[in-house]
Amino acid sequence: MAIKKRHIHLTFCHRKPERSFFWKGKQFPICARCTGIHIGYLAFPIFLFQICTLNFWWTIALIIPTFIDGWTQAFFNRESNNWLRLTTGLLAGIGMMSLVAIIGQFLGIKILQLIHHLK
Fold it and tell me: Residue 23 forms beta bridges with which residues?
């Protein structure tokens, strides 16, 4: 009895060949935008260890281009290209990691203040 392979097909954009990169003839499992986002996540240690810090508004400014690119494609019948998707995704990934660090630092300060107050 042969085992039949099953493939997950995401209906949005991840598996569309025209929205994905290929390496050595194999399609990436995620779209170009998400590839950029995941690469941007690698910036987290830079923000975690405060090698570089961004204020809240610069962080939001890094995330906005991805929304603009994605929304204008979805709702205004505009077609982006993979390099724009990758670039805006990379900016968003970096922005999201900066936002995680900002929120983490804020919560850490609040926890330390609470502990100090309880003593």
Answer: 26
